[in-house]
Amino acid sequence: MQMEADLLGFLWFSGLWWPPLPLLAGIVLLLTGSRGWGGSLLALGVLGTAGQIYYMMRKLERTQAGPAFDAQVVVHLPLSSEFGTEAERTAYQRRADSLEQRVSAQNAGVYDGDGVGEASFDLYFMGDDDERLVRILRAGVKAEGVKARIEVMD
């Protein structure tokens, strides 16, 4: 009962009820024979409802979108073969976790995943400042004692 009251209150005070109102009134008037007002109200209701749906979808896109990062940095870790061994990939995944913690602890960006192939285990990072992100990643790779190539993507 409380949830229904909350929903009705939200719909009433948000104004979400008004665009479908002329749509419904137009349908009723068209069905009862008043074509002049019925067609006008139907068109107004369709336009208002379409606009409302467009607005809500744009708002939903903005809330679901993550932060926009300008810098993309890739850490290339060498593998012994095309895809490396299971032990190498597991070790590099642990290193990826520690690098991710370093980057997030300094609010420099986010870890965006990894890729394996062509004798390289690649770690992808995104952030606002590529130079800062490279400094943090270089320090992390050096602390791990791993030979790696760090590349800034354009």
Describe the structure in your own words.
The protein has helices at 2-14, 20-32, 35-64, 86-105, 130-144; strands at 71-78, 109-117, 120-127, 149-153. The protein is α+β, with helices and mostly antiparallel strands and 154 residues long.
Please outline the helices and strands.
Blueprint: H1 2-14, H2 20-32, H3 35-64, E1 71-78, H4 86-105, E2 109-117, E3 120-127, H5 130-144, E4 149-153
Q: Could you spell the SSE succession in H and E letters?
A: HHHEHEEHE
Strand-residue proportion:
15-25%
Mean pLDDT: 82
Radius of gyration: 28 Å
Key features of this structure:
alpha+beta
Gist of the model:
The chain has 154 residues and is of the alpha+beta class. The protein is built from 5 helices and 4 strands; from the N terminus they run H-H-H-E-H-E-E-H-E. 59% of the residues lie in helices and 19% in strands.
